[in-house]
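Field: sequence (string)
Field: structure_tokens (string)

Example rows 1 and 2, in order.
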Amino acid sequence: MINFIVKYLVFLFFSIFSSIVFAQSNQTLDQFYQSTQSMQADFEQTIRNTQGKILESSLGSLILSRPDKFILQYTTPAEQKYISNGKTIWIYDVELEQVSIKNIDEGIGDSPALLLSSHTNVYNHYRVTDIKKKQPDGLSWVQLQAKKTEMTFEKVILAFKNTVLMKMTMYDSFGQITELKFSKVLVNKPFANRQFNFVPPEEVDVIGSVSAQ
């Protein structure tokens, strides 16, 4: 159950990341937002506890289009889809044959999958600073430190190669560390709005009011 919650929070992080307007300023982060209107990538996700033990490894893919539209899909070990068209969020658990529907405003809060889509939320909720690595690795590292102790993610670290997002590590209030490594990244590929709408299959249970749509 905790790992499902973590996946949901990752989804929310991307949603914040996809709807951003500038407020404060960090050169590395701002260059990413200015140069990236859409993003498509595969990812490998690892969830660890504070002792470094791996709790779960997942594979999946991401499609993101600003503002507020994205598809976060896990393919292994269990197929789950998180979809936003900018107004509605659908959470589809294929194995459970269940779809949850939420208004996007219910899902944003302080969560870091509504970060890849919204710049204002980043600076409103996090203090953004550069990280200088002792051993240069060709990446630019940025740390997002939560401004409030009750935030779901206490800290988020992003790694960029030029302006392309390559890694993301999130430290949550459960004491778990979630790391995503991105590959096959395509930037600014055009996506039709209809790709971000979702019609639940007839055989699944649907949780959520029609008004959320």
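Row 2 begins here:
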Amino acid sequence: MGDRFTHVILGGGMVAGHAAGVMVKQGVEPGEVCTVSMDEDLPYERPPLSKGLMRGEKQEAEVFINDPGFYEDNGIEVLLNTRVKSVDLDAREVSSRKHAMGFENLLIATGAWPVDDRVMAAFTLGIPWKRTKAIAEIIKAAKQIPAEVLTDESRDLEELAE
């Protein structure tokens, strides 16, 4: 087994980011917390992506739950782009392809992916549809392209974003 943490947070969304903030306020020591996330970015608020970042009304830094330096400043290890392959509750261990870590307390904050008609339409059109910062930035950039340059697919992407 690799490292051992007092608290392991599985997930990289809103709950994970807020939980890390609460743990710091409650006095966890550096090195006690690890967040494991499939996301490529630190935890951020998803609603502001479509209600601010994509429209150009918010800056990227405004969607993050905690300042980017928060995790390092507070000794919180963050494993991004990491998919957990197993959780052994008896052994109190979490494993991914590259990491294995022990824990005393495990918070599962993986959230959920919404499925609606727009999602099904996006898959049909081959458009990735999950509310991530990367997708929000692509849509924001697509909205700044002059209409005569847009392809049918990028128009579809813009319409799906609204």
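free_text_note (row 2): The radius of gyration is 18 Å.
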